């Protein structure tokens, strides 16, 4: 048995390969402009899964450029009409459809105010693409399942490519060259072991930290929308400030222990939660003996979140079906959300 969600997930490596090649010249041109005229401020504009991709972009771009990247509360523009200072601002909108008014309008307003505007969008003929000065199409192709998968993965790769070209980071650039192959390796991993256990869950936590936190947020959203599970994402550090009080015997917790400075902390947290009787599922690279699920790695640690979500999506799809849901048609949801 299959679904559009699974088919589209499995198509992500080829979509990323197409996108990286198609956007090469545009990335190089935009990167040259950003180096010549560096922005004084950077904001992201996005909702839902796209906002998780924007969070990944923000973390990666801040680490690589030293410039703070802020998520713009769109209601400041759409409802409160705040007089934002847009001079020397870079505004980056991320969207699958490019049609939600509360994503499009801030781009128009900020561009009129003098900001440089960029859209990472799957529909290159959308209102968002028309509103932005620069467009980097995601080239994910048609995505018919309500749950975004391949477009999200392409969003992450597009964010990494822009950052790599802007900062001329050789490790990222080289890692991107082999990213499609790393995604194929991630696609081939078997994450089916926890399906039946998770199918009986009504709540769970997803934990990560740093550049991987956006993946935990996306995983939690997919559990909500496709599986009907009340899932929440937390930074491993934030777990210490209250959420761990919820963890009791049998409580399901998924931890992403990606390579990097936060890995040891997350492995330690997973062990502590196991000690409390929690049902811990630790996803980690092959060199972490405590792991329950194996994470594929890439040519750069900061690209590993992309392969992590590639392995995760089939798990969410299988849990959805095991719970009697349709992963392609979540209850009360539609592909394009027209919020203001």
Form type: globular
**Total strand segments:** 10
- Note the main sheet: 5 strands, parallel
Specify the helix fraction band: 40-55%
Tell me the fraction of residues in β-strands, as a range: 5-15%
Find the CATH superfamily of the largest domain.
Glucose-6-phosphate isomerase like protein, domain 1
* Strand order of the biggest β-sheet: 2-1-3-4-5
CATH topology annotation of the largest domain = Rossmann fold
The CATH architecture name of the largest domain reads: 3-Layer(aba) Sandwich
CATH class of the largest domain: Alpha Beta
Structural class: alpha/beta
Poorly predicted ranges (pLDDT <50, ≥5 residues)? none
Structural overview:
This protein is of the alpha/beta class and 340 residues long. The chain folds into 2 domains: 4-177, Glucose-6-phosphate isomerase like protein, domain 1 (Rossmann fold, 3-Layer(aba) Sandwich); 194-322, Glucose-6-phosphate isomerase like protein, domain 1 (Rossmann fold), CATH 3.40.50. It is 46% helix and 15% strand. The chain is built from 14 helices and 10 strands. The protein has helices at residues 4-10, 12-22, 24-36, 48-65, 75-78, 101-112, 127-131, 150-167, 170-177, 179-188, 195-199, 213-227, 263-275, 304-322; strands spanning 41-45, 69-71, 89-95, 116-121, 134-137, 203-208, 230-235, 252-256, 279-284, 293-294. It has a 5-stranded parallel β-sheet with strand order 2-1-3-4-5, with helices on both faces. Strands 7-6-8-9-10 form a 5-stranded parallel β-sheet, sandwiched between helices. β8, α13 and β9 (279-284) form a beta-alpha-beta unit. α12 (213-227) runs parallel beside α14 (304-322). The chain is globular. The two termini are 38 Å apart. The mean pLDDT is 94.
């Amino acid at each position: 048995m299959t679904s559009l969600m699974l088919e589209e997930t499995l198509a992500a490596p080829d979509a990323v390969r197409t996108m990286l090649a198609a956007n090469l010249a545009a990335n190089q041109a935009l990167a040259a402009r950003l180096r010549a005229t560096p922005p004084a401020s950077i904001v992201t504009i996005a909702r839902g899964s796209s906002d998780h991709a924007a969070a990944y972009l923000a973390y990666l771009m801040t680490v690589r450029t030293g410039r703070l990247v802020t998520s713009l509360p769109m209601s400041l523009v759409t409802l409160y009409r705040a007089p934002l200072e847009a001079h020397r601002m870079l505004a980056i909108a991320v969207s699958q459809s490019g049609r939600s008014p509360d994503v499009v309008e801030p781009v128009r307003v900020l561009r009129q105010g003098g900001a440089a505007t960029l859209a990472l969008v799957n529909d290159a003929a959308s209102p968002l693409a028309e509103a932005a000065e620069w467009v980097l199409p995601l080239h994910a192709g048609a995505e018919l399942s309500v749950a975004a998968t391949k477009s999200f993965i392409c969003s992450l790769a597009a964010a990494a490519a822009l950052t790599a070209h802007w900062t001329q980071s050789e490790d990222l650039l080289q890692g991107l060259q082999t990213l499609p192959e790393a995604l194929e390796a991630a696609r081939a991993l078997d994450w089916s072991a926890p399906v039946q256990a998770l199918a009986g869950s009504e709540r769970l936590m997803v934990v990560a930290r740093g550049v991987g936190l956006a993946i935990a947020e996306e995983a939690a959203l997919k559990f909500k929308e496709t599986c009907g599970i009340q899932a929440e994402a937390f930074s491993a550090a934030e777990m210490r400030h209250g959420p761990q009080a919820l963890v009791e015997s049998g409580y399901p917790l998924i931890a992403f222990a990606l390579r990097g400075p936060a890995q040891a902390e997350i492995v330690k947290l997973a062990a502590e939660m196991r000690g409390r009787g929690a049902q811990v599922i630790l996803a980690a690279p092959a060199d972490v003996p405590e792991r329950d699920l194996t994470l594929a790695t890439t040519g750069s640690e900061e690209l590993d979140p992309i392969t992590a979500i590639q392995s995760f999506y089939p798990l969410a799809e299988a849990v959805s079906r095991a719970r009697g849901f349709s992963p392609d048609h979540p209850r009360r949801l539609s592909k394009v959300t027209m919020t203001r």
